[in-house]
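Possible regression after last week's pipeline update?

I re-ran a chain I had predicted before the update to compare outputs. Posting the input and the new output here so someone can diff against the archived version. Not blocking, just want to make sure nothing changed silently.
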Amino acid sequence: MGYFDDYDDFDFSYSSSSYSTSSSKNDEAIFIAILGTYFVTVMVLAIVVVIATLVGLWKIFTKAGEEGWKAIIPFYNNYVLFEIVWDVKYFWFFLIGELIAGALLVADIFIPLIPALIALVIYVYLLYITVKLNYNLSRSFGKSGGFAIGLIFLTPIFYLILGFSKNAVYKGNITKNQKGVIQNINSTLV
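New output (post-update):
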């Protein structure tokens, strides 16, 4: 008597007709439909955000005396924005910082941890530049620091507000005006 003799009454045969694949195909179709809907929704929202940002920048540039078409050219629009509200040298710090931080993150693949930490420090500095740029933008249009917070977190909406609001009037580059005021104070004291 063998070991498997007790299992003679059990049927070990497998029939493909007993397993239905239509349920799994329906599940796959539903998953693909949901994924496709999500992808299309995200793409439409991204396009709306980009268009709102460009329209707002266009109006901001025209209020500041620049030509509106400068808003649609990548990198150049940031250069003009820095020129309008701050100083162009900070644009170069920002651009070079982005390039160095990106290169360090690529280098992190080969040398772990150190490049990523250096990139983190650079990104903190770039965050400071971004906050300061938005603060200067809000002040250049006569708005408060609270408006700058809105510019930081809801950029497209607040660009549109600055661009289309009758109350937002360009008062000039406040950092250049401040330098002039400080120089005037120093010259009167001497």
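Follow-up from reviewer: compared with the archived run. The chain has seven helices and no strands. Marking as no regression found.
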